[in-house]
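Appendix B, record 7
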Amino acid sequence: MRIRNVVGRATYIEGRATYIEWRATYTRAMDFGHSPWVALAVALGCGLLIGIERERRKGSGASRAPAGVRTFTIAALAGALAQSLEQPLLVAAGALMVISLSVIHYARNRTRDPGITTELALLVTFLLGATAAHDPALAGGAAVVVAILLAARSRLHRFATVALSENELRDGLILAGAALVVLPLMPDRPIAWLAQTNPRTLWRLMVLLLALQALGYLALRAFGPRIGLSLSGLAAGFVSSTATFAAMGSQARAAPALARACAGGALFSNVATVAQMALVTATVSPATLAQLWPVLLATAVAAAAGAMVTAAGVAAGDPQARPPSRMFDLPRSMGFVALLGGLTAALAWTADRFGSSAALAGATMAGLVDVHAAVASVGAMVERGTLGAAQAGLPILWAFTANTASKLAAAWFSGGAAFALRALPGLAALLAVLWGSWLLR
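Structure tokens (predicted):
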């Protein structure tokens, strides 16, 4: 009986393995994404898409370009077939043949400005066909990008030579270097001789500040001072309202005619601050939001009204309100980041020395740097039961007040006293509505 059971068990296992193998074979057969016919179809589409665009620019007569829709389609199919045969030498030979034909045509070309765009596009099309054999989705998406780049030739040329100024190009390279080169090299740990400050965090703030100034500059060019700076201020406020005040202040200092529009854009970032406070509170502690939503709603309305009143006097097409010559003020931005880093280190030292267990003092100190972190901390205390929902409002309001003071300081440091005085009425009205609605609640 035991031998019979063992044999039956072995038979069951063998049958199960056969079923799994059949199922895998069936799944591979039904996976059309890896079918060779699908690969050839995608390669055909890649060649046709790029080839049609090149055919329209091919010209006619003796000076016409050598490659059109047929050449590009055949090159893509050749790449797919070579890759499907799983012969790397065949793929390399095909690519070498395409390169050789391109070099021969370039050598025979007698035009004054021959260029090599078509030759490079032909090689890329062959490689896209080879890619389609294993990853049709990647090949199809890349073919669309290549076709768009080829079709946008005139627009890209005009943007690079006419629309983009030398200062804008230089500032763009500085921003790219700060984000892609310097930021990854920064140490990502607290350093003792920097008062336990994380250098990468500070430099990330630096990149953010430069990016916000560039965003405001581009919005100003695209939509004008009243709409462009208002939209950019609102969008930037979801990243950092304090940094938005600093960025707008730098733009106002560089172009004094834009001071009113910059102040309106900075005040619009307060709307984003209040909206994020509501979202953070709803996520961390819904009970706290139930206590605060009338106050937050009134504050958001006051923030929007103050920003619109400040920006209302700006003419949409004021000829004097031209963008500054530079996208951002690098020295002043570095100074602001250094100041904020020093303030953060001082607050951390104060908390370690004197303690910050009290919710009111701790939230106020945190609000000087990031009001949303303070709101999240207070909400977490409510959820843990260490603080009642009815008592959570006061620490959050003090955190918002401290954060508003830091915005005014950022406006003063970056834009000067004149810019800070333009932003002061809107910030004062915001705090008046905040505390008034809390007391009336």
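Remarks on this record: The chain has a mean pLDDT of 75. Residues 52 and 98 are 19 Å apart (CA to CA).
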